[in-house]
Amino acid sequence: MKIKEMTRQQILEMIKKYFDLQELVCKHIYNKYGQSAWDFFDKDLLAVLLYIRETLGKAIYVNNWQLKDGNLTQRGLRCQQCQMVKDKTKDGKPYMSAHCLAKALDFDVKGMKAEDVRQWIVEHKKDLPHPIRLEDGVSWVHIDVRYDDEDKMVYKFKV
Description:
Blueprint: H1 8-15, H2 27-33, H3 43-56, E1 60-61, H4 83-88, E2 104-109, H5 114-123, E3 132-135, E4 141-144, E5 154-157
Parallel strand pairs: 3-5
Antiparallel strand pairs: 1-2, 2-4, 3-4
Helix pairs in contact: 1-3
């Protein structure tokens, strides 16, 4: 069965083979909601992540705050207690990134440079289960599903 045709439950069952929830959420969310935080994630984001992980066949690293020397804490789902979000709201204005909506992830792929991963994604765009935005020109890979144009499966942007 193609990932695009899978139910949310089927996607969750498969993605849990590759990722612990702690890797995908900030510690504030994990500490408050535990395993229930899986419910926050956008199905399309999980489907794209699953497709990349299974098709590329390499380990993907998002957060590592749960490890002894881990310092990556805000590359998945972020909340208002995360420093990056606090910094964006100092002026009192709302801040709602795709990360805050559980529609985005930043990650690295074992043994690959970010640009090579982006190139691989573009080369495989016709097989993606959902259109994505792909941040260009950064040393990590950012994908999000805040974009929905099946005529152009990958929209590259710069911040």
